[in-house]
From TrEMBL:
Signal peptide limits: none
Domain CBS: 7-63, 68-123
Highest taxon above the source species: Bacteria
Gene3D superfamilies: CBS-domain (3.10.580.10)
PANTHER family listed in its UniProt record: CBS DOMAIN-CONTAINING PROTEIN, CBS DOMAIN-CONTAINING PROTEIN CBSX3, MITOCHONDRIAL
Protein name: CBS domain-containing protein
Keyword Secreted on entry: no
Keywords: CBS domain
Amino acid sequence: MRARDVMSRPVVSVDTRTGVREAAAVLAEHPFSALPVVDDGGGVVGIFSESDALRIEPGQDRLVTEVMTSPVEVVGPATDVRVIAERMLAGHLRNLPVVEEGLLIGVVTKHDLIRTVVRDDDVVKAELRHLLDDYAGSRRRWSLEVTNGATTIEGDFADIAERDVIGALARTVPGVCSVELIATEPTPLTWDD
């Protein structure tokens, strides 16, 4: 599973011209412990956290750029969630902005990661069943088993490309940690010309 599969969006952020009091109000309105700070071009330049807000004396209103954490760690949309979890734990981070081509597209929070761990297998199976039924036009072509996130999909695949698509679809479902594909009839090993 990748950052793009679990990240929170739309992203709530503040820009470099935002005052600390305004940023603190944004934090109070949303269930986040920190906000990305972006420049005029949408690039992440820092993180403004609850701790930053608490350091400000009453009546004092400085810009977030004066108190934010910078430089900030970011990840790409294809970063594996295990790598993200390791970086969060090692750096004592509560979230990591997800950046693509220099622009903020999402945020992965600890809460996002925890949701992938505790998802019930029945929920994962139901979501995957829905995806596969949509793909196959509601024809049940594959049987599914999900045990502790380990997913087995068994059935007929038209060719290697379809098998790869089914595997990729399965990996988009939060809670799927591995995918095994079993063809009940031999899958052609070459492309048709």
